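Aim 2 progress update. The chain analyzed this quarter is reproduced below.
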Amino acid sequence: MKETLIDLRAWRQFVAVAEELHFGRAAQRLHMTQPPVTQAIAQLEKTLGIVLFDRTRRRVALTPAGEALLPDVRDMLERAQALPARARAAAAGEVGRVRLAFVSTIGFEQLPVWVREFRTVCPEVALELVEATGDVQLQGFARGEIDAGLMLHSPGFAPPGLERLAVADEPLVLALPARHPLARAERLALAEVLAEPLVMFPRRIVPSLHDAILGLYHAAGRTPAVAQEAIQMQTIVNLVWGGLGVAWVPESVTQFRRAGVVYRAADAFAAPGRRQKAVALPRCETSLVWPASADNAALARFVHFVAERGRAPVSPRLHTA
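Predicted structure tokens:
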């Protein structure tokens, strides 16, 4: 059975009569004469098929049905009154939802701070967070499951077809077991570590950074001995602890303090056949990315919020254990 829509005006008249329990006073409150109010309530009851008020010559009282309905009608009218302001807030990106995927490296420090501060600025925008590697994020974009992502890549190599805002820049450092002989040095020469077995992420996760690390070895005339691949940075560090090899990780990973693992910076080296030209260690960049076609005011608000904080270099924190 199709329900008949009832004008909000009739509901306001119902509330007025319910609170005054007098048709004359309700009419005065509504700046109306009494007959239209009486007629409106009678029509409302007819439409609903129930009696809302018991009427006698001496009194007007809510029926049990009318009394049960009153709180819901008040709530509906309050929400209806708030709709224009809420619509303006939605258009300004002050309410809504942003489904944000992120790589683990940005989750160590920057992302928690951003979430806390953004919640203060836009408390009615829900940030739905999901940790995901770059390849998984691209699949999420294709399926329309995420609105934005924080991706790790080599500088300037963010995926094509997405808008991009660089938010962090950091060097790679070497994670190695604390018992490893090289762990005694505060800084390492690249030539000292190129023969070490390597724990590394698969190329599909971060192709540009994977290629940059392999390019480092190739520039030295070496082929990296990849002993084990793993997806998550925490897993890579745990495998280093287990003695499977050493690993190049973004400097932000040093905040993952795994007992028995140390992090060391490495110096550039002179590559063979390059007239002693120094080969520097690759850097990595994190970007906030989103579809160019996105029509989400809350997302635009979040992008603006992150942009105001600028591109942030990661502070060096090389933990010894």
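The chain is about 40% helix and 25% strand. Confidence is low (pLDDT under 50) at residues 312-321. These observations will guide the mutagenesis experiments scheduled for the next reporting period.
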